[in-house]
Every structure is written in C-alpha cells, then in structure tokens.
Amino acid sequence: QVQLVESGGGLVQAGGSLRLSCAASGRTFSSYAMGWFRQAPGKEREFVAAINWSGLSYADSVKGRFTISLDNAKNTVYLQMNSLKPEDTAVYYCSCGPRVGADRKGDYWGQGTQVTVSS
Predict the structure, then answer these.
(1) At a CB cut-off of 8 Å and minimum separation 6, what does 80 contact?
(2) pLDDT tens-place string over residues 4-51
(3) Helix, coil or strand: residue 50
C-alpha cells in the first residue's frame, strides 16, 4: 500500500505561482511512476504531468508553465506551477502506479488539494 498526501494549494492571482507537494509513504517510492492530475467542477479528471522511467511528460495545456520534479530522499514529488491562469483552477491530485500518463491513471491517489486562480 502507498499513502499520498498533497499540500501547497491555495488562492493565487493570474500570473502567479504555486508549488504543490506530494509526500509518499508505505512502499518504496522509487518503485512507482508519479504524476499529477486535476479535476475542475463539472469536468472529468485530466492528466497534468508525470515522471516515469521513460522520462517526463506534460499535458499540452501546461507545457512551459508547469514543472514536475522528484526528491527521492524525501519521498516527495513536486509540481511547480508558474504563469497560472484562471483555467488552471481545479482540485489537484497526486497519483502513482507502475506507469502514469495521459493514457494511464495511477493505482493510488491522494486526497487532493484545491488550486484557485483569480482573474
């Protein structure tokens, strides 16, 4: 079993930045791919970014603005979000599994953290 706990969400003005953190515990962190998804009100959960053995991947909507990174010593994955837009407003979820990406959701999920971007 893996437990994931997100933090770092909040309210920010358009153009601002936030850094989300996801602390993992339970199983060896390095065994899994890690990723971030988001879900806006009335919409389906969508892929944002992921780290797999094959490398990094991003949704087109966040490329150049968001950066995913991993600190194995702290068992923590981060999502640095810059140049935020109102359309980035959503609950952001951390996920992990054998593979994570636009076509594959993880097996484990955190509780989510709210990000609200005001115009």
Answers:
(1) 17, 19, 66, 67, 68, 69
(2) 999 999 999 999 999 999 999 886 556 789 999 999 999 999 999 999
(3) strand
